[in-house]
Amino acid sequence: MPPAERPAALGVLRASLVFVWLATAVVSVVEREGQSALLLQQAGWTDAAAIRTVVFAGAGADLLLGLAMALRPGRWVYWAALGVMALMTLAATLLLPALWLHPLGPLTKNIPLAAGLWLLLREEARR
User: Fold this and answer.
1) What's the burial of 88, exposed, middle or buried (CB within 10 Å: 0-12/13-18/19+)?
2) 36 exposed, middle or buried (CB, 10 Å; 0-12, 13-18, 19+)?
């Protein structure tokens, strides 16, 4: 990629990651009694209050990361996003390892997301 195109490409990458985090927050809340709760129920959770708490905590984390990435991009938010994503991926792997085999890739998508965050981190380190 020519150096002149690099900032625009990284801007598109960042915007796409912002979209993923904000969309995930919204969908998690909209589906709090549907798919979001079902995932935890499939993992053996039965306490409705605990399920709601976990869903809203995850949605809140996604919302904060998406907004921070949109409004205050920088190394700290990319590291935070990588960390939260790693923790959520680990938790999902422990609770529902079959998600790695899901055809729509709820966990496998995290690999290219991590690569995108890593590229943004590297760019920030060059500045």
Assistant:
1) middle
2) buried
Q: In tens digits, what is the pLDDT along the chain, a chain of 127 residues? A: 677 778 888 999 999 999 999 999 999 999 888 888 888 899 899 999 999 999 999 999 999 999 999 999 999 999 999 999 999 999 999 999 999 999 999 999 999 999 999 999 999 888 7
- The secondary structure element, H or E, covering residue 72 is none
Alpha-carbon distances, residue 82 vs 35, 49, 101, 117, 119 (angstroms): 24, 28, 22, 7, 12
Distance of alpha carbon 114 from alpha carbon 88, whole angstroms: 13
The single-letter code of the amino acid at 20 is V
- Domain regions of the chain by residue span: 3-126
The structure's pTM equals 0.89
